[in-house]
Amino acid sequence: MTVKKKPAATTTAATTDAGNPSRAPSQWIELGRVVKPHALKGALKVMIWSGSGDNLRPEIPLRLEHSESGTMDVSIVRAAPAGNCFHLVLKEISSPEAAEKWRGAAILAARKDLSEGLYLEDLKGAQVRVAGAVQPAGLIRDFYVNPAGQSYGVLGDGQYVALFLPEVKFADGVLHVPAHAVISADSDE
User: Fold this and answer.
1) More reliable by pLDDT, 151 or 94
2) Are the C-beta atoms of 156 and 6 separated by less than 8 Å?
3) CA separation (Å) from 7 to 35, 46, 117, 145?
4) Beta-strand relationship, 182-184 and 159-162
5) For a 10 Å CB count at each end of the chain, is N or C smaller?
């Protein structure tokens, strides 16, 4: 696995915003982001990076949060897989103009409504231990999700850890990873 350059500022980043008083990491889980409007009736193309599409069901209320458009609680009418994304039809959004307002919005769900599992929010601040290394690699400070939907923990100093590998295990607040899971932004392998 290689990363040629440091992610551009325009690349999707999953941030937990632990300092944001409107949502504590323990209460709200950021499932993904709105990529763009889709079709003429106001559907949204969304990328999910925390959990799975199984959490996009009509019985699970969602919240959209956008720096300019604010916050809106929404109800799912329909969610359909579309490549590495989903097309999401929401009861509250019925036009392309309304959908455009939410481009880039975080898609949140209350933890209590979600299926059991590990979410990116749970890994914020986790210590990363590389197999065979004496010292920990660092703490996960933030997240980066590439356009293919693969998640990386940001360790800082140009170091990232791949979170989507089957060998990555999380236990007792420590993320155990194989050596090839830790990559450098300067790597040209």
Assistant:
1) 94
2) no
3) 17, 20, 28, 9
4) antiparallel
5) C
